[in-house]
Amino acid sequence: MNGSAERKEPDASGFLMCERNWIYDTLIAVAGFFGAYTYLLRGNVFCNAQTGNVVLMGMALGAGKWREAVYYLIPISAYLLGAFFSELLPNPVKRRMPLRWDTLLIGIEMLAVIALGFVPESAPVQISQVTINFIASMQYNTFRQAEGVPMATTFATNHIRQIGIGLAKEVRHFGTGKKEHRKKLDRHFKMLLFFVAGAVAGTVFCNFLLGRAIWITLIPFGAVLAALLYADLVTERGMTERKPAGH
């Protein structure tokens, strides 16, 4: 029998492994852990998004603190470069390797986590901040839709917004029997819960293990990497040209 005929579909609904809900739940839990890690141990900042840094840069400019304002360009630039490279690399990767960019990215994030665990508490906090700025941006730009629903895997703001929208629709459609909105509401609510759970775990482990606590994220990252590798090399072999939804 032809080998390609024996290959399985990505799953019953046609979604790729890199689009599965549990992958997104896991990644946003890690993001919550990162948030606790950088806030508690690396300068009292959140590196998963850049709104705060842009505001602080604007405040520094308004106060005439030019050197401080220029400093904020460092994390903002790291985030920008993360998006830049994650947009350019998928095609070269799939042409040269039997893997998707999504899979390679998880491996890159794991290497970054291993390196960060060796950074001593006395080191400049910018080392950890910029590294997480960079990998968070790549992750945000790479993992875009979970089983057809647009998602963010590095911060919670949009999930809170979508929960508010979903609850409004619940009120609007009360008694009408319309339930289409509930799938989306449920997914965003679960993503928010996983983000909070990751932050809780990050707080607990950072208090006990300090900087090496970040190595705990290698466990969920490892589970994601194993699933993506198995998909690329077995169940979804030869399907690297198929783009995940949202790309």
Automatic annotation (TrEMBL):
Superkingdom of origin organism: Bacteria
InterPro entries: DUF1275
Pfam families: DUF1275
Transmembrane feature ranges: 21-40, 69-89, 101-119, 191-210, 216-234
Keywords in alphabetical order: Membrane, Transmembrane, Transmembrane helix
Record bears the keyword Ubl conjugation: no
The protein's name in its UniProt record: DUF1275 domain-containing protein
The species this protein was found in: Candidatus Eisenbergiella merdigallinarum
